[in-house]
Amino acid sequence: MLNRSTSIIAGAIAGILSGSGVAANAQTFLGPTPYLCFSDSPFSGLSLGYFHLETFEDHLFNVPGVTANQGGVTSVVFGPSIHDSVDCDDDSIDGSGLMGDSFFGAADMRFTFHAEVLGSLPTHAGIVWTDGGGGATVIFEAFDSAGISLGTVSGQHADNANNGETGEDRFYGIINASGISAIRISHNSGGLEVDHLQYGGAAPGCPADLNGDGQVDDADFVIFIFAYNTLDCADPAMPAGCASDLNNDGVVEDSDFVIFVAAYNTLVCPE
Question: For the whole model, what pTM was predicted?
Answer without folding.
Answer: 0.73
